[in-house]
Amino acid sequence: MCRVVDLQQAVLAKNDVCAHELRAELAARGTIVVNLLSSPGSGKTALLEQELLLARRRGVPVAALTADLATENDAMRLARSGVPVKQVLTDGLCHLEAGMLGAHLEDWLPEDTRLLFVENVGNLVCPASYDLGESLRVALASVTEGEDKPLKYPTAFGLAQLVVVTKTDIAQAVGFDEAAFRANVQQVNPGVEVVLTSARGGAGAGLLLDRAVAVADGASPHLPVMAARTAGHLHEHGQHGGGELHSHEGGLLHAHPHAHDGDDHAHPQTAGAATSPRAHRS
Amino acid sequence: MHEMSVAMAVVGQVEEAAQAAGATAVRSIRLQVGELAGVVPDSLAFCFELACSGTVLEGAELVTETVPGRARCGPCADEWAVGMPPDLCCPVCGAATEELLAGRELQIVSVCWEDGPVPVPTRERIPEER
After folding, report:
1. Residues on chain B touching A129 (C-beta within 8 angstroms)
2. What was the pLDDT predicted at A76?
3. How high is the ipTM of this complex?
4. How far is the C-alpha of A246 from the C-alpha of A259, rounded, in Å?
5. Taking a contact as any Cβ pair under 8 Å apart, which residues of chain A between 20 and 79 contact chain B?
6. What kind of architecture, by CATH, is found in domain A19-227?
7. Cβ B85–A270 below 8 Å, yes or no?
8. Domain residue spans of chain B
9. Are B98 and A220 within 8 A, CB to CB?
10. Could you tell me the residue ranges of all domains in chain A?
11. How far away is chain A from the Cα of B78, in angstroms, using its nearest Cα?
């Protein structure tokens, strides 16, 4: 017989659970993850090169993991800073998932790391859907990309806890309208901080590092409206870092037999939000 | 883009639930996809068919319900459709939305499956079997 069963499971529950576990595990050893999202070519690597070097000079133990579809070019650039760097090749996959990140950290991440910068695959669509266990999510946009970028990619910018504008040294030449950009960010993510940087010109150097250190020291990052999910979802209280997970789905499999004998209510409890990390490839 | 990963997550979760319940075939799956979930239903439907291949979900129908984004401003007691791109500031007072009520769903709502063994067609005994 055919029956309809209410599953009520978040599709990305496995990734979410895995991300929460990773966040808690890292927090216990004093490490936070900073997840950097942007389109290809927006200047993530150049900015990161500068921030890693600054961190080293200031004596902040940092590490960086960079994900690309191919080549180790970014890792080679980042490694010049002298901090531990790891290149992850996704072999075509458009985003990182929490389970993948966790697996890459094993046997690599130095024990005393305070900040782990993760340079996600250059893509403003897919990475936005995956919590990597980060405590600070940063969306970057260069001045050449157009002021409407936050509106075109509302999930990426709407879930950011910090927005970084890059390449401001050429802002005037390309006619970047800062006020329009800020208004667009505000529309999808009211209250998020927007900072201006230029890795080439040196403007805003250290800002990203300062914000990350503040979060590592216990400051509460911005909580985007879009991240404060309400009914029926896995969500956190206490704005990240706490690792407190509330699953309203409860993992209960509630069966309504549509086979028409009203009392046959099955409650198998085995199929809830699973805890085993599992990376999928596209 | 990542719709294949999403499709595989759906298939994986339904497979586990079906196995735990002893279901033998999955007929259909109802999925809620919020306007702000960052998933394209058409692309997901395409990937879903591929992801089902060779599993207990083979041939299952994916029924997608799109959930519009809705937000609420507490002080104004105002509720509005946020639209796309979303406007998350209150249209009355301009302040940040207090609550996003809906629009981020990516949720398996229900599944229709066959439970119990698929009946094996029986045949008449032939006289030699007696």
Report:
1. 2, 6, 37-39, 106
2. 95
3. 0.82
4. 33
5. none
6. 3-Layer(aba) Sandwich (3.40)
7. no
8. 3-68+103-116
9. no
10. 19-227
11. 16
